[in-house]
Write a structure and sequence with these properties.
This protein has 194 residues and is mainly α. Helices cover 82% and strands 0% of the residues. The structure holds 2-acetamido-2-deoxy-beta-D-glucopyranose (2 copies).
Amino acid sequence: MASIPFSFSLLLVSCSMVTASTNQNSSSFIRTSCSLTLYPDLCYSSLSPYKSQVGNNPVMLARFAMNVTIGSLKPLSMYIDSVLQRTAADPSSGALKDCKELIGDAIDLVRKSEKEITGLEVMVGSQVNWRIGNAQTWLSAAMTNEGTCVNGFEEVGSGGSGEDVEMEVRQKITRAKQHTSNALAIVNSLRNSY
Ligand SMILES: *[C@@H]1O[C@H](CO)[C@@H](O)[C@H](O)[C@H]1NC(C)=O
Ligand SMILES: *[C@@H]1O[C@H](CO)[C@@H](O)[C@H](O)[C@H]1NC(C)=O
């Protein structure tokens, strides 16, 4: 009689051990994949929270990397909106308006890329290369948009109170660009997996 709860608890222990080793394995998988990016620490810290969903799946890792990127672009877009509402007459608002569009387009491009590689695990042949190629093109375009936004501020050089806003936008966009760069590097490495 006593053996039933005993073996049951053994089963529980072994189940949680499997989970622990999968997470362990996934952590090292994420760390290794992130070591191929330009910002490995940012890559690891932003993606390790998803390790149980990522497992050892490179496509899932790439998809989460893109969603993390979107997660950094969206608040930036909202921040720009709020600044534009406050400072319609500010000399830098022309650059900000441009940024708003550029960032909006970047969000669409990253979102499209995430969809493009969804299900890549079960695709074969030219379909795989085609989809990876599209995601690479779109992520590169998103990075170009981000760079253009930052450069727009350098040309303005507004001075005064605009400078805080500029600095804030520049910091947020630099971070978003690092996430995009990491996502692109992870997508590049999909070529070796499929
Ligand atoms: C750990 O990951 C490797 C590849 O990264 C895989 O081959 C192996 O099956 C994984 N082991 C477990 C227990 O998930
Ligand atoms: C990324 O976000 C999109 C939109 O919210 C969602 O449909 C998709 O499942 C997410 N991808 C992952 C890997 O969670």
